[in-house]
């Protein structure tokens, strides 16, 4: 894969072009994220990026140590506490945090473990999660407003993350993890493969659909993805590319 930090910056630029084009009315419209306006989505992304560039992640501990505190609950509390910014001020605040994030993560030495939601992550993996979250929330904004947001080769990072975290997804679902091979078609028509081709379970289809299922923006039944082998359908049902 290409450099994750460069691709993260490119994903921010693609979203920035969309946000810069929005009218004040569009900022206030409902997004595809239930209960959140477009402004709420951008505020949430801003708050997450500010956590990264604030320099508080070096201890390598989980940010949410209590199982009683949910990621969604914490995000809702944070957004509710700061609603009401003007679109211009919010965009400037997001840009300041987001455009600083790739270099901030790149600067950490190899072997660093950074605090994050449920478990410490390497800077590269944290950058991957940031790309995945910005891509997913860009869908919430652009789908709601009918604005094109083309899929790119950067989805390879999102698909990798979804496959890489399948053991965690199985555990959260209370299921025994099984090896899964993913044979996916990239936006440009080439193939992306993840896992052992000899794995007993296989998921095949469009990478863009696989990523959207992992982001809970589509259900497996809304896609052309196919599954073969024991627990492959379970894997597709529980796959995720976000923290929970």
Poorly predicted runs: none
Rounded radius of gyration (Å): 18 Å
CATH C-level of the largest domain: Mainly Alpha
CATH architecture of the largest domain: Up-down Bundle
State the helicity in percent bands: 40-55%
What gap, in angstroms, lies between the N and C termini?
25 Å
Taking strands numbered 1, 2, ... along the chain, how are they ordered across the largest sheet? 2-1-3-4
CATH topology of the largest domain: Four Helix Bundle (Hemerythrin (Met), subunit A)
What can you tell me about this protein's structure?
- This protein is an alpha+beta fold and 244 residues long.
- It folds into two domains: 4-145, dinb family like domain (Four Helix Bundle (Hemerythrin (Met), subunit A), Up-down Bundle); 155-238, Nonspecific Lipid-transfer Protein, Chain A, CATH 3.30.1050.
- Helices cover 51% and strands 8% of the residues.
- The chain has a four-stranded mixed sheet with strand order 2-1-3-4.
- The longest helix has 23 residues, at 123-145.
- The radius of gyration is 18 Å and the shape is globular.
- The chain starts with a helix and ends in a 6-residue tail after the last helix.
């Amino acid at each position: 894969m290409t450099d994750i930090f460069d691709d993260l910056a490119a994903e921010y630029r693609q979203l920035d072009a969309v946000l810069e084009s929005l009218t004040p009315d569009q900022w206030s419209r409902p997004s595809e994220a239930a209960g959140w306006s477009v402004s709420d989505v951008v505020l949430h992304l801003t708050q997450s990026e500010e956590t990264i560039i604030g320099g508080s992640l070096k201890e390598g501990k989980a940010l949410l140590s209590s199982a009683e505190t949910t990621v969604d609950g914490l995000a809702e509390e944070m957004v509710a506490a700061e609603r009401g910014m003007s679109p211009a001020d919010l965009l400037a605040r997001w840009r300041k945090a987001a455009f600083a994030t790739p270099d901030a993560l790149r600067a950490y030495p190899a072997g660093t473990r950074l605090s994050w939601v449920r478990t410490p992550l390497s800077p590269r993996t944290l950058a991957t999660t940031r790309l995945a979250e910005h891509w997913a929330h860009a869908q919430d904004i652009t789908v709601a407003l009918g604005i094109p947001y083309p899929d790119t080769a950067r989805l390879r990072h999102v698909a990798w993350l979804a496959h890489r975290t399948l053991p965690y997804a199985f555990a959260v679902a209370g299921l025994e993890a099984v090896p899964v091979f993913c044979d996916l078609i990239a936006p440009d028509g080439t193939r992306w493969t993840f896992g052992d081709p000899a794995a007993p379970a296989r998921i095949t289809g469009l990478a863009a659909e696989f990523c959207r299922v992992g982001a809970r923006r589509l259900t497996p039944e809304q896609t052309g993805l196919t599954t073969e082998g024991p627990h492959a359908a379970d894997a597709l049902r529980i796959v995720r590319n976000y923290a929970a």
